[in-house]
Write a structure and sequence with these properties.
By secondary structure, the chain is α/β, with parallel strands linked by helices. The chain is 21% helix and 29% strand. The protein has four helices and ten strands; from the N terminus they run αββββαβαβαββββ. Strands 1-2-3-4-5-6-7 form a seven-stranded mixed β-sheet, with helices on both faces. Helix 2 links the parallel strand 4 (73-76) and strand 5. The protein is globular. The termini are close together.
Length: 198
């Protein structure tokens, strides 16, 4: 079963998996979405293809994907903070039992790349433009916007392997197709679609 554009599919499923009432306004009591790293879950999307869903999927709280290739794992994106990325890596290891050897960045935004350096021993793959923008901009935390965030220790690690149009990875029984799907004009970032098929 093909799982097309894993990151997009996770964003669509996020609202189903974590459907909760809207957050209350100040001075109003009621349920509030738990946005802590401990609220994230791994979700099976297809055989050996999983999503890592972080509620509520809003700004700088992204979702990731991973493919269990048996003796190794292909990870799609990291997280915005050290703590969130460490939680992601723990969940991936608990689910697959194998090390991440390949990391694919879908685009350069920090909520998808700030934790790259924590994936020791993995080759980092991304579009050429993703590498260029990460090298030029460094770590993104938007301190004036995300006030009081615990970023932890962050170090920039742009992709070491780049592509221009598309790339095919083989991960166990899966073929992982990495394809350019659109360009954001305002940020000049290329977005990448990832499809895992058997």
């Amino acid at each position: 079963m093909p799982v097309t554009c894993v990151v997009t599919r996770l964003d669509q499923r996020n609202s189903e998996l974590f459907a909760q009432p809207a957050e209350p306004l100040l001075r109003h009591s009621g349920p509030v979405t738990d946005r802590s790293p401990s609220a994230a879950t791994s979700t099976r999307l297809a055989d050996q293809v999983h999503g890592y869903v972080q509620p509520d999927g809003s700004w700088y709280i992204n979702n990731c994907g991973f493919v269990d290739a048996g003796d190794h794992t292909v990870l799609i994106d990291t997280c915005s903070t050290e703590r969130r990325t460490r939680a992601l890596l723990t969940a991936v290891e608990a689910t697959t039992g194998s090390p991440v050897t390949t990391l694919v960045n879908t685009h350069h935004h920090g909520d998808h790349t700030n934790g790259n350096y924590l994936v020791d021993g993995a080759a980092v793959i991304g579009h050429r433009k993703t590498r260029e923008l990460m090298a030029a901009e460094g770590i993104q935390t938007f301190e004036g916007i995300f006030v009081g965030s615990d970023w932890g220790e962050l170090r920039s690690r742009p992709p070491e392997i780049v592509f221009d149009d598309r790339l095919t990875l083989y991960a166990g029984d899966h073929t992982v197709l990495i394809d350019t799907c659109s360009t954001e004009r305002r940020t000049r970032a290329l977005l990448t679609a990832v499809e895992a098929t058997t």
